[in-house]
Amino acid sequence: MKWIRSFALFWYDFVVGDDWRVAAGVAVALGATAGLVHGAGVNAWWLLPVAVVALLGLSLRRAVAAAR
Amino acid sequence: MTGLVLVLTVFLACAVEAVEALTIVLAAGTSRNWRSALQGTAAAVAALAVTVAALGPAIGLIPFQALRLVIGALLLVFGLQWLRKAILRASGYKALHDEADAYAKEVASASAAAGGGRGVVSDWYAFTLSFKGVFLEGLEVAFIVVTFGNNQGSVPLAVLGAVVAVVAVIGVGLAVRAPLARVPENSMKFAVGIMLTAFGTFWSAEGAGVEWPGADAALLVLIPAIAVLGLGTAVLMRRTKTAGAGAPAVADPASAAPTAPSPTAKGSLS
């Protein structure tokens, strides 16, 4: 059981990293993009770049706040 | 993406990880036991080869659209992690990665650890230290090689970039017999973070059904835009930190951002 937990934690750390909100934000942004493209017929190419700027900025803000 | 950019991206990512792995193997070898350290390295390389051999064909079976969505998303998450750390290092909020310092710490902890062997391995500590160092540093590179290669249909080119980087780092390491502290590791990581973020954004959006204006040419805008975003943020954060605290938190933070590669020099990480 301990081995499975360590294995799962390793992959979580490997994929998600220091800030899980970034991974969650990417998933939400991609879901929204797919929804706009396939559901509303909008070619939402601009959404992900905007999300990248926002997610990076917010993550850095949290890191800076934690460092102070 | 051109083959050249593919090779350069994989080369940079692989070189950075190889430098870090070399530091660990050198520490295990010089402070403990060279034979066991090299056995650990060989075992890790074999494990990585098996991982790539298993992952490569498996990824090739995934439908192209789904592959771009999933792999692009993972590359984007990786890229943002690398870029975030690179910006924090360049702005002085996180200490710059220093191979000489990392080597000294590894040697100190390896020297203090207990001895003892298992089977054909005479020093288990040196074996496991080398194995973990090489495997963990190599796993991310293996992932980048497999995903970049499959997405571009050029796995051999991606492997070429990785092999050239490893051979170059090992060659220089053998020549100097010391940690490669003079490699501009932090700048290289910045470049890899930019590239992973740009390609991750491009591929994952395509996988979600987006048609980029200008098709592949959109990358020529995305890469410089993310580079400007990353470098500009680092400069801004460093100025804010210096103005607020009176002095930077790391020994020489000014050496990080100015030496980070320009958008035209191509990509990077955390």
Plain-language structure description:
The complex is a heterodimer of chains A (68) and B (270). Chain A has 68 residues and is mostly helical. Chain A has one domain (18-67). Chain A has 3 helices and no strands. Chain A is flat, with a radius of gyration of 16 Å. The relative contact order of chain A is 0.12. Chain B is an all-alpha fold and 270 residues long. Chain B has one domain. Chain B has 8 helices and no strands. Chain B has helices at residues 3-31, 34-60, 64-90, 99-112, 124-152, 155-176, 185-207, 219-245. The two termini of chain B are 22 Å apart. Mean pLDDT of chain B is 79; it is low at 247-270. At the A-B interface, helix 2 and helix 3 of A face helix 3, helix 7 and helix 8 of B. Chain A: Keywords: Membrane, Transmembrane, Transmembrane helix. Chain A: The chain crosses the membrane at residues 20-38, 44-64. Chain B: The chain crosses the membrane at residues 37-59, 66-83, 155-176, 188-205, 217-237. Chain B: Keywords: Membrane, Transmembrane, Transmembrane helix.
